[in-house]
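Re: the request from the purification team.
They wanted to know what the chain is likely to look like in 3D before they choose a buffer screen. I agreed to run a prediction and write the result into the notebook, where they can find it.
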Amino acid sequence: MQFEGVDVNPELPLDIEVVEPMRGIHKWRNPQNGFTVYRLGHEANPIYTDEFLHEVRKGMSFLDFLREYLLVWRAFSGKPVYIEDWSTDRHSTTDIIPYNPNLPIVRGWDFGLTPACVFAQLVEDMRLNILSELCEDSMGVEKFLMEVNNHSQRLYPKATHFVDIVDPSGFYRGDTDERSCVAIMSAEPYHLRPIPGIQNPISRRNAVIKFLQRSAKDKPAFSVCRQRCPMIMKGFDGGFHFTRNRSGQWREMWEKNEYSHPHEALQYICTRVTSLSSSHDEPLDIKRQTYGGFSHSSREKRTPVGY
């Protein structure tokens, strides 16, 4: 459920069995110490009607209210970027999302010393699955390339095609290195062919919203794996947000923080994924299990990074 646009679903463990003996009460056993844990939520108390909660909300900050009354400890200050379109229940799953080895895995890249790479796949009916993420701190592009390589081989060993959509700033040289991030990616031993994502923030945000708002055969056209995308999830739940300026108005650009890096990588994917092809001149034809030239019979096949 949501309260004032923020998901207030119970924060429950993902990898152990949880039972709900009655509404608002969840029970599980801690595998580390053997303790039985009960989570008592506001739904168990009949006086906590929507009218009561809205009245209580008036006397305290929204952040304190979420933590004190709804036990939402992941609550963040600011306005979530996708507050009107994101739903944890609808757009995410606790299961590992399987990948299709016959289709490309699309990697979105955000550069800098806190680089991020998001792994996604566009499947039948133009549904976008967000498979996993890789976020690092204080790491240069060369070492991050190796980490992405290892991640790709470990989680997607049968994948035969990877497509890389990057922050357009990666095509420019830095002040301390004559080579750009893209030049490093394109050189030995990787020989990648990065595609620039769209830079305009409004276009990037709208590209994600289009996927969030779409349905395909009564299913959402966008799904995130909670287990393998913790930063993406926390970003959707409020970590990726707008803040207010000194006059109290919402800023037009979101705050740059640890959650913005994977989310910007995700945005780059969404700006390009529906029009990718190996030759850059053929449209996607996902019904035939192919990205334009990317198919088993492709005249041009790409080798996964590090293979």
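For the purification team: Confidence is low (pLDDT under 50) at residues 278-307.
Please add any questions underneath this entry.
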